[in-house]
Amino acid sequence: MEAKDKKINLSDLIDVKFLQEFQDTLAKIMDVASVTVDNNGPITKPSKFTDFCIKQTTGNDVGFAKWNECCLKYGKIAAEKGEPVVYTCDTGLTDFVVPIMVEGENVGSILGGQVLIQEPNKDYFRKIARTLEIDEGKYLAEIAKVKILSSEKVEAAAHLLFLVANGISEISHKHLELVEKDKIDNLYKAIMETIRGSLDIEATKQAIVEIVGKALNADRCFIIEYDKSNDEFLTINDEYLSSNEITGYTGVDVNKDIPEFAAVLKKGKSVIINNKENCTKAYSQNYDIEINASEQYNVNSAFAFPLYYLDELIGALAIHYVDKKH
User: Fold this and answer.
1) Distance from C-alpha of 261 to C-alpha of 265, rounded to nearest angstrom
2) Residues 139 and 223 in one domain
3) Are residues 285 and 156 part of one domain?
4) DSSP secondary structure string, 35-93?
5) Could you tell me the residue range of the domain that residue 49 belongs to?
6) Residue 171 confidence class, pLDDT cut points 50, 70, 90
7) Per-residue pLDDT averaged across 38-48, rounded?
8) Exposed e or buried b for every residue in 123-147, given b needs 16+ CB within 10 A?
9) Is 223 a residue whose pLDDT tops 90?
10) Which of 18, 95, 267, 323 is buried most, with the most CB atoms less than 10 Å from its CB?
11) What is the pLDDT of residues 125-166, one digit of tens each?
12) pLDDT of residue 263
């Protein structure tokens, strides 16, 4: 049997430990539940699952059947479309299915959500409780604990999961193919072809900053690429701004405009500004240029962290807030 005819296992493509950590982190940041499954069942532990679903809905045979029916129905739709699907479950919560695709084949999915996008209608949930033969009082008490998020935030969470999980699985699959063919020297080319196969490089980077920026409610989000040969960061090109009133960082040379911060990122460390008042008091004179830049671009709080591929620095991702203090 040819390698391409073999069944692809998701656990062979993505390190499950990494996937669990990523899933747990996103669930915490975005306040959404999630679990990853392959064609044989779950491969990660559930992250941030609600008691409403675990103890009330799916703990009931009828409720479990309805939940399972929705997962199968929308999982099939997501696999056929090759993109995330956000839907309202028969039990009243908003959920999503994120398909993980490799060369057009659905190798797994990330199931998540378990949130509300508006205040719960008590009469509606009483009706569901009666259908499931569950105590109405307990059912309403649990639904009152469920997070209420905007539909935009749920969409952002689903698309962020889709972008990362599919990017990693596609690249890992190319890597496995090359290992089998003993052509490791072509790995970089294969990765670039994979990226170009769905989006061109610039569109991919722009999609990343927009998804991350929206997901974290940032005012400004941008990628800083690193040029190893010259040991310096490239001029900023890919950026997300929450409104036209926010001054852009496009065209900024961080090596000159924020040299001390650039040096910190090159060492593999993060730059964190909780709020600019504390930043101004805490920094020494060595950071005068950075403080002036923060004032110029109205940075109230910020987080920038280095990005690595294997052990090599490839750039940094920065997230800015104009009004919020963190």
Assistant:
1) 6
2) no
3) no
4) EEEETTEE-S--BS--HIIIIIITTSHHHHHHHHHHHHHHHHHHHHHTS-EEEE-TTS-
5) 3-167
6) low
7) 88
8) eebeebbeebebeeeebeebbeebe
9) yes
10) 95
11) 999 899 888 889 999 999 999 999 988 888 888 888 888 777
12) 93
